[in-house]
Please model this.
Amino acid sequence: QVHLQESGPGLVKPSQTLSLTCTVSGQPITATHYAWNWIRQPPGKGLEWMGVISYAGRSYYSPSLKSRTSISRDTSKNQFSLQLNSVTPEDTAVYYCAIDGKYELGPYEFEEWGEGTQVTVSS
Model:
């Protein structure tokens, strides 16, 4: 029932900011015990969790990315967004948004995912 859709530019130049938005339908992003995550997968590599924003609006980030990452939300549009600053070609990946529907109730689990969007960092 819940649908997530990533959107944003597919090409970003090095040193610029990568900005993506996840639009959520079927579930308010403020619903209790839901958390909204960004995950990426570089080519040929595994999934990498980037960060999360909770139903209460609190954000947390992967230690390896926290200095460059910001996650925010727009509750009126039921969207949450990712910004990754100072990108390099190593940030080229498929970027996903995903739901944890039991945040604070147990181990995190990404029950539903968007289809992902390819972002290439290149000049």
User: Anything to note?
Assistant: The chain has a mean pLDDT of 97.
